[in-house]
């Protein structure tokens, strides 16, 4: 992986609201969320199903626009931006890791990462083998996703997310489809990524994972219910569930 840089990827949300549906069926998936993430911070978001965790991640990553409120991510003010601006923001600033990896099945591990470099025009294609080496996949680079284990696929997806050198990494249940040992290796990578200076926001149902965070945010009914500081975040190797 690349060497540590100055902390980056800070986030500031004020009164951020996101609604879905119309009329009586309308619901606020986010309801006046205030939240700060410091540059270089690792934040874990917990909360029951439907509490707005994924919506928060999607709004932060510019996948969906907020309806109300102020939102600055990695130095970019997102309030009122056009869909085209949000695409540029995502391309330049954010990396995404999903529960079910979202790799292109017809491309090898290497090609999946290279495709991200090609599509975004960011990063360096010649660095892709090194990047895959940094997630321990040197001997699997030319395998297709179906020939890789879940943990290996998730490591490819982390390499893909890092290929554009994002300021902020957004991970939605990154260990949700993995067994404990494999999940821990993924957590270690996310923690290492964070230690290089970029902010990481991880959504999870797994409360054990919260011990590696600098801060733990709990959501309920579209609102931030609690924010707790971890005085001494745990090393990912010590986490179990
Ligand atoms: N595209 C959508 N259209 C309509 N309603 C949506 C949409 N996306 C999310 N919602 C609703 O918004 C609320 C928050 O959903 P969200 O996916 O953010 O919750 P979550 O905390 O991530 O849940 P889970 O832990 O089950 O993934 C839920 O009531 C959900 O049904």
TrEMBL record:
Q: InterPro entries this protein is in?
A: AAA+_ATPase, ABC_transporter-like_ATP-bd, ABC_transporter-like_CS, ABC_transpr_LolD-like, Glyco_hydro_18_chit_AS, MacB-like_ATP-bd, P-loop_NTPase
A Gene Ontology biological process noted in the UniProt record is: carbohydrate metabolic process
Gene3D superfamilies of this UniProt entry?
P-loop containing nucleotide triphosphate hydrolases (3.40.50.300)
Example of a GO cellular component annotation carried by this entry: membrane protein complex
State the Gene Ontology terms under molecular function: ATP binding; ATP hydrolysis activity; hydrolase activity, hydrolyzing O-glycosyl compounds; transmembrane transporter activity
Domain ABC transporter: start-end pairs: 11-239
Indicate yes or no for the key word Amino-acid biosynthesis: no
Which keywords does this chain's UniProt record carry? ATP-binding, Nucleotide-binding, Transport
Q: What Pfam family is a match, any one?
A: ABC_tran
- Record-linked PANTHER family: IMPORT ATP-BINDING PROTEIN, TRANSPORTER, PUTATIVE-RELATED
Q: What is this protein called?
A: Putative ABC-transporter
Identify the taxonomic lineage of the organism of origin: Bacteria, Bacillati, Actinomycetota, Actinomycetes, Kitasatosporales
């Amino acid at each position: 992986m690349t060497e540590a840089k100055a902390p980056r990827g800070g986030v500031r949300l004020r009164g951020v609201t996101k609604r879905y549906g119309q009329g009586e069926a309308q619901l606020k998936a986010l309801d006046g969320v205030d939240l700060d993430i410091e540059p270089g911070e690792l934040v874990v978001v917990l909360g029951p199903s439907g509490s707005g965790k994924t919506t928060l991640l999607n709004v932060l990553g510019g996948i969906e626009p907020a309806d109300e409120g102020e939102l600055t991510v990695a130095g970019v003010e997102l309030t009122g931006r056009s869909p085209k601006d949000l695409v540029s923001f995502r391309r330049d600033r954010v990396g995404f890791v999903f529960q079910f990896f979202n790799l292109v099945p017809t491309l090898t591990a290497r090609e999946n990462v290279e495709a991200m470099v090609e599509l975004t025009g960011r990063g360096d294609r010649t660095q892709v083998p090194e990047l895959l080496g940094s997630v321990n996949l040197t001997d699997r680079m030319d395998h297709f996703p179906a020939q890789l284990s879940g943990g290996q696929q998730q490591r490819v997806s982390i390499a893909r997310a890092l290929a554009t050198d994002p300021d902020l990494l957004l991970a939605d249940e990154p260990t949700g489809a993995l067994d404990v040992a494999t999940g821990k290796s993924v957590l270690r990578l996310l923690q290492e990524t964070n230690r290089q200076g970029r902010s990481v926001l991880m959504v999870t149902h797994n409360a054990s994972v919260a011990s590696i965070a600098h801060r733990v945010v709990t959501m309920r009914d579209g609102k931030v219910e609690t924010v707790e500081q971890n005085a001494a975040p745990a090393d990912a190797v010590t986490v179990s569930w």
